[in-house]
Write a structure and sequence with these properties.
alpha+beta, single chain, 4 domains, Beta-Lactamase, five-stranded antiparallel sheet, six-stranded antiparallel sheet, elongated, 12 helices
Length: 497
Amino acid sequence: MATLSELIQEHAALPPVDQEWLRLLVSDWQLLSDLSFADLVLWVRRSPDRWLAVAHIRPTTGQTVYFRDQVGRVAGTSRVELLETAYVQHRIVRERDSEWDPDDPVREESIPVVRAGRAIAVLTRHTNLSMLRTPSRLELTYLATADALSRMVANGEFPHPTAPTGLRRGAPRVGDGVIRLDTEGVITYASPNSVSALHRLGYVGEILGTSLAELVTSVLHDTSPVDEGLPLVLTGRQPWRTEVTSSGQVISMRAIPLTESGQRIGAILLARDISELRRREQELMTKDATIREIHHRVKNNLQSVAALLRLQARRMPDAQGRAALEEAVRRVGTIALVHDTLSHGLDETVEFDQVADVTVRAVVEVADSGRPVQVRRIGSFGRVRAEDATSLAMVVSELVQNAAEHGVASRGGTITVEVKRKEGKRKEGKDETDLLTVTVTDDGVGLPDGHLPAGAGLGTQIVQSLVQDLRGKINWAPAEPEGTRVRFTARLRRLPS
């Protein structure tokens, strides 16, 4: 199904500023739907007497009217008259007779969406009359607030153009708790959920008739961090969102100023207890910091091991033993590099191109034979999970090391690392692994006639074992026109979504 933006661009000749206004309205209209206990449908004018529904929202506080999505529906003749009247006259229009569907009576209202003094669309509000009963104080307050917001839409005063679109928007909903304020910031109504939220902050006393700013201030401690926008939110003067922390509880509050012909008539605040959410976020942050610190310490310990091996190699009189220790230093350094990269990230994945490039350069520098050796990479490894990164780095390091020492050492040349990654598809409810194919090619002396590595050397044994751990295969073959080509595959674990 097409998105709201696509439908508006295709069917309505509206400039970008009007399209953005409709997107802001739709991002906030769950509030109006919940306060109205009604479905909302947004209509755009394709041509005179032809209207198309481009968005539909259902209330979470009551029964829906339309079980089928209304998006894409063309308005019938009877509805067109209401839409045209609201659109042309810039006023809210209520149909004279209730609309009856096969089961329930429905009351429909047409609300013009006005921006900069002109109508750009029409919003229809559909109320299921069969659910109406003797209204409670809560329902009367909700409906009165919904009517005020509807008039603001018709006057071009809602959505608020100055409302931030970032973190201060959106989280609390009507069902979480509603507080109604007058022009002075005094509480005239508080839903049961909002009363409970204020009590959890540590307030004891009467809530109605109390200034919300004074109420919240009384429960704050001197050491409590305070958002600079808190006073403006608590008095309902700005359409922002803030958080109040007290007694170990965190309450998210969002203000929606109410206006009538440009004059403030009060505000509503949505309040939600997000204490558990913030605790979980803190736990995750602590866990991430712990994991990064572990990787950092592992890297430091591995570097200490490498330093000890390097010191021992210098004291080794036997040339063969010294070479073996230097090989061990290189391998430990490769593993340390992976842990160092992981210690800088927030998740357990690593951008492997950086690891591979640093590893390959280090290998070539260590294996310097006095001949010019160039290394190039074709393709990208992408991001790799920590469980696969160490094994993959070791395999690439060993293969480039062999190419540098045995392939191009005597005369110099070029080592090419070619990478191809094929993303696995979701099949039968399971995510397939990504298939990685890496080819290391050199233009050196090549393999001896009839000789293929069979795991006799320690490096070859390590490579074969690690490739098996990566659930892949490896093979050696002569390169054309000369040199050696080693190709291995690896099945990488899928990245976390």
